[in-house]
């Protein structure tokens, strides 16, 4: 199974406008293109998105797996302050009395973060 350009595993079959037939992709971000180059998951650990429990070796076969390492959207497009790159760009063009409060003084990519998955701790219903 591939890691999609958004960083998530391609665990969904997508179909719809612009998609011929059913294509494996990310059902959250509606992405069908695999990440290029394919990330190395060797030595990486994925923890459950709901806490530190459920730590396992990173693999796109884990439920709701999201790669957040070098080259991922999470590492490149999220600022250390927690806002996305787009929010910083939008704020720079806004005339507002209450601008976004970037705590690091402008966009700085947060870089490599641990990978995520879902361990089933909240049920599967």
Can you describe this structure?
The protein is an alpha+beta fold and 125 residues long. Helices cover 11% and strands 17% of the residues. The chain contains 2 helices and 5 strands; from the N terminus they run E-E-E-E-H-H-E. It has helices at residues 73-77, 85-93, and strands spanning 12-16, 19-25, 45-48, 56-57, 115-117. Strands 4-3-5 form a 3-stranded mixed β-sheet, with no helix packed on it. The protein has a two-stranded antiparallel sheet with strand order 1-2. It is globular and about 45 Å long. The mean pLDDT is 86.
**Share in β-strands:** 15-25%
C-alpha Rg (nearest Å): 17 Å
| Element-by-element helix/strand order | EEEEHHE
The percent range for helix content is 10-25%
Shape: globular
Euclidean distance between termini CA atoms? 24 Å
Main sheet: strand order = 4-3-5
